[in-house]
Amino acid sequence: MRTIGGHIGYGIRPSERNKGYASYLLKEALIKCKELHMGQVLVTCDEDNIGSAKVILNNGGVEDDLFITEEGQLKKRFWISVKSS
Ligand SMILES: CC(C)(COP(=O)(O)OP(=O)(O)OC[C@H]1O[C@@H](n2cnc3c(N)ncnc32)[C@H](O)[C@@H]1OP(=O)(O)O)[C@@H](O)C(=O)NCCC(=O)NCCS
User: Fold this and answer.
1) 47 CB under 6 A from ligand 1?
2) What is the mean pLDDT of residues 61-73?
3) Is residue 55 predicted with pLDDT exceeding 90?
4) What is the C-alpha to C-alpha distance for residues 52 and 44, in angstroms, rounded to an integer?
5) Which atom of ligand 1 is nearest the CA belonging to 24?
6) What is the mean pLDDT of residues 13-22?
7) Residue-range domain boundaries for the chain
8) DSSP per-residue codes, the chain
9) In terms of CATH architecture, what is 14-81?
10) Of 78, 74, 50, 80, residue with least CA distance to 64
11) Which residues contact 3 (CB under 8 A, 6 or more apart)?
12) Which member of 8, 47, 58, 65 has the greatest number of CB atoms within 10 A?
């Protein structure tokens, strides 16, 4: 989970994509993570998944090192802080 997979995953049905739902979904999930005092949340996506990377960046994701799977797939990894101020 620390390398790929991360804490949160999401998928939007094709007919409803590009309407802001994934960005909203991740925002709501991060509120739950904050309630759980998780501190830092890892969210990952395939290197060529531009939509998912934007969803993560829309929610304050800070990019970490790329991870290469045993199959040679490139995975982007982002950390999002949910620390209480
Ligand atoms: C990736 C996915 C979750 C995005 O969901 P969504 O509801 O369309 O995302 P949003 O509407 O919140 O879009 C967020 C941003 O990404 C952009 N975007 C969405 N899909 C995109 C695509 N295929 N290519 C480029 N940009 C895209 C939107 O225009 C938006 O840009 P903005 O922030 O500049 O306005 C959705 O395409 C999906 O379910 N894909 C299949 C499953 C998957 O890949 N899940 C993620 C696994 S990590």
Assistant:
1) no
2) 95
3) yes
4) 9
5) 12
6) 98
7) 14-81
8) -TTTT-S------GGGTTSSHHHHHHHHHHHHHHHTT--EEEEEEETT-HHHHHHHHHTT-EE---EE-TT--EEEEEEEE----
9) 3-Layer(aba) Sandwich (3.40)
10) 78
11) 67, 75, 77
12) 8
Count other Cβ atoms within 10 Å, centred on residue 5: 14
Confidence class for position 5, pLDDT limits 50, 70, 90: confident
- Residue 1 confidence (pLDDT) above 80: no
Q: What is the pLDDT of residue 83?
A: 92
Q: Which amino acid residue places its CA nearest to atom 2 of ligand 1?
A: 52
